[in-house]
Amino acid sequence: MSSQPKKASPYGSIKFDSINAYHACFDGDVLERLNAMRKAIHEAAPEASETISYNMPAFKQGKTLVYYAAYKSHIGFYPTPSPIQAFAAELADYTSSKGAIQFAHNRPLPIGLIKAIVLYRCNEVGNKV
User: Fold this and answer.
1) Where does the chain have alpha helices with state H?
2) pTM (whole model) above 0.90
3) Has residue 31 got a pLDDT over 80?
4) pLDDT (tens digit, 9 = 90+) per residue, 86-119?
5) Alpha-carbon distance 108 to 111, whole Å?
6) pLDDT of residue 19 exceeding 80
7) Strand partners, 21
8) Nearest to 78 by CA among 50, 62, 55, 97
């Protein structure tokens, strides 16, 4: 068990040094969703390395592919702007902005869509999978 306190947001005084440390700040359904997100990203980009960037979990394969973070009501997914434009039709039912997508906690994670976006990012940065 982590000595880090449980908290609703990854931001604040804790500076994470690994995705494991980040995930350790959550429990229950949120932790399950974070683990599912991590697994989906690894399945889509098995060569990607894990890191913390901007105090959030991030995956790199040459360049940063995607980031994610847990919030009170959603998981934020940050794949950069181009996939959000490319997958606009598939993302129509989700709250999104130029560089972010919100996956509400009261809905299942769209694992297939997450994987497709990660694959898109791999191709975009020149790391075809």
Assistant:
1) 19-23, 28-44, 81-86, 111-124
2) no
3) yes
4) 999 999 999 999 999 999 999 999 999 999 999 9
5) 8
6) yes
7) none
8) 97
3-state secondary structure of 60: strand
Q: At 86, is the secondary structure helix, strand, or coil?
A: helix
**Residue 15 corresponds to which amino acid?**
K
Q: What is the full DSSP assignment across 112-124?
A: HHHHHHHHHHHHH
CATH number for 19-124 (one of 3.90.1150.200, 3.40.50.720, 2.60.40.10, 3.30.420.40): it is 3.90.1150.200
Return the closest-CA partner of residue 68 out of 119, 123, 30.
Answer: 30
Say how many residues make up the chain. 129
